[in-house]
Amino acid sequence: MIGQAWLIAVIAVVAAAPASAPAAAATTCGATASAARVGRPEPWRAWRGQLSASAPVYARPGGPRTASVTPADASALLVLEARERAGRCWVRVRLPSRPNRASGWVNAQRLDLSSTTWRLVVHVGSRRLDVLRHGRLVRRFPVVVGAPLTPTPRGLFAIAGAWKWRPRDFYGAWVLTLTAHSDVLEHFDGGDGRVALHGRGGASFADPLGSARSHGCVRITNSAISWLARTIGPLQLPGTPVVVD
Length: 245
What we know:
The chain is mainly beta. The chain has 2 domains: 19-116, SH3 type barrels; 118-244, Beta Barrel (L,D-transpeptidase catalytic domain-like), CATH 2.40.440. Helix content is 10%, strand content 39%. It has 2 helices and 17 strands. The radius of gyration is 17 Å and the shape is globular.
């Protein structure tokens, strides 16, 4: 589980980062990012929308506004489906807020849409992480998952942010925050119970790989998570689908 102090530190970094303009191809469903192409996440491909500024979230395309999402919440969002309405492309996205199945509609003009062929699958029972590309297994890693009283939540999530960290720290070399939150811990260490995929260092070595001893986070070796960051890319990781079964 990720604590408040850690989140404050990384949000400060996000706030200082320069914003980039969204791609023109995302303005209508008739352009390159068309509703026929942008759709539900499949094992071989999914769509992600990068945020460059705060974006309003609506209950339905053109409907009432219900919330907003910012790059500090998630630098990219996983697209769940797309529709065209009144000449505009709308995408339903997985939100980085509770409940874990939370979703909402965003005008695609506010996002930079791109596809990804990567997918991460966490198998809680066998305590392993499968890395897929084009629907095919690329790598498999042993992991530490949530303890019986603080289980890792299951469902379809996405990486919300990717942060290079300190290899000797508890969180290890990288922290990949997820849109998932603990089902049993409303708050943890001053935070909101956000779940992450992160490396191992310091006291976390006390829990061996293949065990179920975390507060809900998924831990892998520093070498494994560094390989993920290097291979997929820190900027491409956010919005990547993560299935926990």
